[in-house]
Fold each of these.
Amino acid sequence: MNNKYNIAKELLKKYKQEHIIDFIKKNNLGTKDKIIEQILNIDFDELKELYNKTFDDIYVDLEELEPIIGVNPDRLTNKEIEEYKKIGAEIIKNNKFAVSTMAGGQGTRLRTSKSKRYI
């Protein structure tokens, strides 16, 4: 673990994530090993690039956005889940997706009178 820990520690320092080192130290040996393995599998350069892209000025035509219907995966069969995974993979492969995270409340800023829960 020592060598991997040192490599992970240097990565965390390089990307200014030293607070995770303290978190590692507070865990038992088995958990420490799992956290270290996760850290070593992170592509920090790609993560940094993706983060920087969040500041790009991107034009989105709100008139083209369409509401989606939520699906509760707890109520789906395994076959239905697999079908959704295939659909999702195809959409991602064709760059035809968007991601949105919303808190509760009304969707007035999204030009709708519906609660965001139902958008």
Amino acid sequence: MKVIGLAGWSGAGKTTLLTRLIPYLVAAGKRVSTIKHAHHNFDVDTPGKDSWEHRQAGAFEVLVSSGRRWALMHELREEAEPSMWDLLAKLSAVDLVIVEGFKSGHHPKIEVFRAANGKSLLHPGDPDIAGLATDTEIETRLPSAHLNDIPAIAAMVQRLAIDVASPTARETVSG
């Protein structure tokens, strides 16, 4: 299983890119999963539903299952937020995991940059930025592709992703 991140400021188009990139990779025969990091409180459950009631009552984990899908909700309560690497270990094995967020994490990332967003580049200040997906010309030694060139971005994603099972994966990108 390999991992690569998409990083960029809010409004750069990370989610839009992911929703175009995933179907392209799946059509090419890849099994793809994602991890989305949220910087705010969020809920995937609906107040009043049984699973919500279980969590409110203090359940540590609630697994909801049907004939179409299952979802596991884990309440951190007083625990520290897990690292991206901890979360990767909880996923089923796939060909590629694309991480949206964990912008300051130490893993290879493709920066998504949109000029109209009016923000500065994360690169070169982030040594873990390994490539760029942008709508403008940027002078860099990093591999780059236009935001609308999904085949080129897909190729870059696959080339720059690192193997999660590699014993030095964390050290390679953080040191």
Amino acid sequence: MATNDIKTRVNEFESTVGGLTVHGKAHSLSAWFVLALRLMMGYAFLYSGWDKITAAEPFSATGYLTNAVPAASPLSGVFEWMGTTPWFADFLAVAVPWGELLIGLALLVGFVTRLAAFWGGFMMLMFYFGNWEMAHGPINGDFAYMLVFLSVAAFGAGRILGLDAVIEEYDLGGETLVERYPRLRYVLG
């Protein structure tokens, strides 16, 4: 792409998956909306994790996993196993609240945003199957939040008023951190 092409393609994006190419042009306000999504999910997860960590009773997912997951869920057996396997239930008692807190904090400050958004999306996918309900169709709030996390990752929301923008450009003797270590783009941004 020539230099002039770059200037005329500002706010444009394109992707090809399975031979199908989609092309779009974002509005100039899109960055603010992407930032708002990152901050909203960051706050929601930080608050949820903090609430579990500071609760009067220690957090446990066992009751939910063994009693609340609908039998119709495609993963009901997996959730039952999680709730009845002591070492895994103990792992979840730490991983869920601290995972939510750390994902939320990472999103709020825009640090390792893609990695945090991936794990947030994974947690929402698990909540989606755990809260399985098809009475109103396959789309619910958990599914929508999973897509928000994936959007935050795809749009590189950590580069918008976030630490990832600073970290990516860190100078290592004439080249940036992500130029020297391009795989960091999978977790930063």
